[in-house]
Amino acid sequence: MIKSMTGYGKAEAAAQHRKITVEIRSLNSKQLDMSVRIPQVYRPLEYEVRNRIGKAVQRGKVDVYINVETDTAAIPVTINRELFMNYYSVLKGISDQMEEQGRGMDPALMAAILKMPDVVTGESGEVSDSERTALLGAVDKALEAFDAFRTQEGQTLIADLLDRIGKIETLRKAVEPFEARRVNLIKERIRENIASVGVQVDENRLEQEMIFYVEKLDVTEEKVRLDNHCRYFREVAAQEENAGRKLGFIAQEMGREINTLGSKANDSDMQKTVVMMKDELEKIKEQVLNIL
Hints:
Layout lengths: L6 E9 L2 E10 L4 E6 L8 H12 L2 E11 L7 E2 L1 H20 L8 H6 L5 E2 L7 H69 L5 H14 L3 H20 L4 H22 L2 H21 L4
Parallel strand pairs: 3-4
Antiparallel strand pairs: 1-2, 2-4, 5-6
Helix pairs in contact: 1-4, 4-6, 4-8, 6-7, 7-8
């Protein structure tokens, strides 16, 4: 099944008092290039998340966004009373000194104490089993949506590519009438050039040389190889998964045959047809870069 490297998937999950959202986006890239944005509380699970996504995505520039929304009303808050009183005693002493100097007590004393390290703590930073299950479940669901997106895009891409392969095959066949005509034109042109010079030539030798010259311009092998490459392109597209690189290599080989055919054309109509084939091939090469 042909898949695109462009993809998007999103999923949500709930765990205790948290809502977890996972988004996965990707663009084309030769290798796997993954960026993961994950909340600090879930950092211990980052490697597991990366490993799971990497195996499913395989290739592409991938951005993963994991967001968590917390119901703050449900979070238990603990105040360390002993630590609070220690901070209070120190700051109260400073405040009393300030009062003796006529400066008055700092009204922000209580706020300052509450901001001291470890005075006010929320719940434990450890990730519970239920949260881990919810997070990884959301990742799996996002990957399912992501894969479905890639599959749909891949079908659109391959339909366009096969249509262009068909155009190249049609243009290749259109070369044949021009190919048959050009042999006589080449021979006539050679004879006209010789006649314009006004020299006597051995007709037998001239005929042999013209046959040799025409044989060098024969494009039968190029046409056969180009047909084989087009056929192989269709086979790979129909039978193989993750065929992007292989289809790219086949397109390169097609380009070799089309270029050689153009260099041997020696006919304006043939060259116009070759240019049209090159145009279709360039579009194929661009689209193949988006295939996984």
